[in-house]
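In this section we turn from sequence analysis to structure. A common task in structural bioinformatics is to predict how a protein folds when a small molecule is present, because the ligand can shape the pocket around it. The inputs are simple: the amino acid sequence and a SMILES string for the ligand, here flavin-adenine dinucleotide. Study the lines below before reading on.
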Amino acid sequence: MDFAYSPKVQALRERVIAFMDAYVYPAEAIFEQQVAEGDRWQPTAIMEELKFKAQAEGLWNLFLPESELGAGLTNLQYAPLAEIMGRSMLGSEPFNCSAPDTGNMEVLVRYATGQQKQQWLEPLLRGEIRSAFAMTEPEVASSDATNMAARAVRDGDEWVINGRKWWTSGACDPRCKILIFMGMSHPDNARHQQHSMILVPVETPGVNIVRPLPVFGYDDAPHGHAEVQFNNVRVPYENVLLGEGRGFEIAQGRLGPGRIHHCMRSIGMAERALELMCQRSLQRTAFGKPLARLGGNIDKIADSRMEIDMARLLTLKAAYMMDTVGNKVAKSEIAQIKVVAPNVALKVIDRAIQIHGGAGVSQDFPLAYMYAMQRTLRLADGPDEVHRAAVGKFELAKYAQAAP
Ligand SMILES: Cc1cc2nc3c(=O)[nH]c(=O)nc-3n(C[C@H](O)[C@H](O)[C@H](O)COP(=O)(O)OP(=O)(O)OC[C@H]3O[C@@H](n4cnc5c(N)ncnc54)[C@H](O)[C@@H]3O)c2cc1C
């Protein structure tokens, strides 16, 4: 595996870094202020400004491997760019590269009809609307997607949808116009062919955004994580993606690339936390020495550097394998990095908080919010335990035949 950035990636890296320095970091405080001052659930002027600037500079839709619609980058080439974007709490939205839209756009590129692409994918690619993925349900253990109980029943040339979802990230944002709903459509089929994914426009009668769910008290406005009630929601039959009972096939594809983007962003966030840790530990003095020279603090800095570099290499390996041998063969590496990246980021952020003392848990530094964000990734991406179970299963499979 070649670790060097190609000239194209190197040039893009420099441009994304310059854009972050010039516009994104300075906009963080303005974004917070605009959310706090107005209606929290309306888009902010500053984010629209950033999107306009990034699009004008051609730093737009950099994800989307194997499609003419993106920047033509492989997963391996996109990884260092997603890492830089992940450094900011504003995330990747200025570049139209944010979750859950990236995963949803990939699904639409692969499985939507021409008319659906025109209606939903094109405005998503232009950054005019947003989307959400409605799978998880409050009533069932959703780490096992075969448990999903919300119903989609065919009635002539329509689907009738009923059920309750939650943690539908992004659905509180008024720009969110389309949901990818995953529900039980064929209870008599084999276990992995019982569910379908269906496009549900948010404005369809019967779709009710019940409430935003805060994360450790952060509401993530105006994005939000919604509880959504579906009451006799009727959508056209052709809104089913790929085919009836084929929701799992899509989920496996969607949760590959869309999810490894989170890992790349986590590494970026860990890098920023390490940067803050180093600066603070050199600037402040206690007991006659800079904090960096006290106790085991230098070890914490060294451990953070080593762990971030290891996590980055594993992310790149997973991306490289996805590009070269496909998501299916890369399954173990994808599962490994989903456990490693947020856990490493959490350890680094936790050390950075400690070095900052009380300031670390305050709102004056981004560390508390970073910690909350990374902690959710140990669940939002599927719980760690589920990924560990997958890694362990692949490992044991190598020896199963040889066992007595
Ligand atoms: C901030 C945030 C954003 C999210 N965004 C979305 C979204 O946009 N769309 C969406 O559909 N969902 C989303 N989710 C939901 C997320 O995918 C689920 O929370 C997750 O899949 C776990 O499901 P559950 O909450 O029902 O937990 P459960 O399934 O009840 O699991 C609870 C716990 O049981 C344990 N467990 C489960 N399986 C195993 C196992 N095999 N081995 C050992 N222990 C196990 C784990 O400790 C796990 O955390 C989001 C969640 C959060 C917190």
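The radius of gyration is 22 Å. As an exercise, try to locate the residues that line the flavin-adenine dinucleotide site and compare them with your own expectations.
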